[in-house]
Design brief:
The chain is 30% helix and 11% strand. By secondary structure, the chain is α/β, with parallel strands linked by helices. Helix 5 crosses helix 6 (157-165) and helix 7 packs parallel to helix 9. InterPro entries: CE4, Glyco_hydro/deAcase_b/a-brl, NODB_dom.
């Protein structure tokens, strides 16, 4: 990520921390948004974990070092959602296709990884559509590329309109604060939502530029899987726990492992909204002073989470499929989740051969 881009991301995160609520009419709305689908009580709600990696995808991305050889208590493998940008020489089609076939979800992260706020519609459409087309050229069926994340998390209504018109299933770019919006701490968080009813959370940053929403927005069938800001242990950390984009270094007094465990424990003992582990390749390669390498800490967290009952790592499209047909933990099977499905698809897709 270029230095200017890193600085822009840092400014976005700082601006969003102090944003104020703007949309909710009453407390009952917030309560509905933090309740599990189907009215499930927390003890009957699966604790899903969303592991995502942004940017170029190549053999050096290291995600396989996190997932390979690790399985759930029911034998399901650990998948991830890869938001892939097609910046020249950063993405290798062979790696994209290999992960797709092994059950990872491949999602769009634009063609050139440039900002898409304050630019003309033609540019936005080309960035998303052409980035998706090049993933298709890698061998991933277009029908399986259903999600998008905006570079630097810069989003506005015009971008969501393009995403909606392209027929994608979800966006995962809007940050959700743990105070001043719908969520009230990491144990009482907003669940993903269909934007057909609008955007009920406070997604407008103080500069009114990097994250922009309108009360008039309605995008039926387009889901938002938020970028929840982990607030335990010196947060907020929307991505890359403990990391600063200004110095490109670990700045917390706490290890990434402790940050992930503290926030996960709050989620697991709370309303069990999906737990986010959103990272970049540079974070996976980071070796913070005084702590184990980030990659090793993430491996340790995955093992920590997998040891607990009712926990599943799933892709974003599998999460939305479950939310559309919620099944309690005591009735959940690998087939219902789409365990091992090619492209991280939901239960309607064929399973990988064993």
């Amino acid at each position: 990520m270029p230095a200017a881009a890193v600085a822009a991301t840092a400014l976005l995160l700082l601006a969003h921390v102090v944003a104020q609520p703007w949309y909710l009419d009453n407390a009952s709305q917030a309560s509905n948004l933090t309740s599990a689908p189907g009215g499930l009580m927390p003890e009957r709600t699966p604790q899903f974990i969303l592991l995502t990696v942004d940017d170029g995808l190549n053999p050096g991305t290291l995600i396989r070092s996190v997932t390979d050889g690790r399985t759930h208590l029911d034998g399901c493998p650990v998948p991830a959602t890869m938001f892939v940008s097609m910046v020249r020489n950063t993405t290798k089609c062979s790696t994209v296709l290999e992960l797709y076939r092994q059950g990872f979800e491949i999602a769009a992260h634009t063609l050139t990884h440039k900002r898409m706020v304050g630019v003309d519609r033609e540019f936005v459409e080309r960035e998303i559509a052409e980035g998706r087309r090049q993933l298709v050229e890698c061998g991933v069926p277009e029908a399986d590329i259903v999600g998008v994340r905006a570079p630097f998390l810069w989003v506005d209504p015009a971008l969501r309109q393009v995403v909606h018109e392209l027929g994608l299933l979800y966006d995962s770019s809007i940050m959700e604060s743990m105070n001043g919006s719908v969520s009230n701490g990491f144990g009482d968080r907003l669940w993903p939502f269909d934007m057909g009813g609008g955007i009920p959370i406070n997604c407008t940053s103080d500069d009114r530029y990097t994250q922009i929403c309108s009360e008039e927005e309605r995008w039926p069938g387009l889901w938002e899987v938020p970028v929840w800001q982990q607030n335990e242990l010196d947060g907020p950390y929307p991505m890359d726990p403990g990391f600063s984009y200004e110095c490109m270094c670990h700045i917390s007094n706490h290890s990434a492992l402790d940050i992930l465990k503290a926030n996960f424990d709050a989620a697991y003992s709370g309303n069990r909204a999906p737990f986010n582990v959103y990272v970049h390749p540079f974070w996976l390669k980071n070796k913070p002073d005084g702590f184990d390498p980030s990659l090793q800490q993430l491996q340790q967290f995955v093992e920590y989470a997998l040891a607990k009952p009712d926990v599943w790592f799933i892709t974003m499209r599998q999460l939305i499929a479950w939310m559309q047909n919620p099944v309690p933990v005591d009735e959940l099977t690998p087939e219902v989740l789409g365990c091992g499905n090619i492209g991280g698809a939901g239960p309607a897709q064929p399973l990988l051969a064993t």
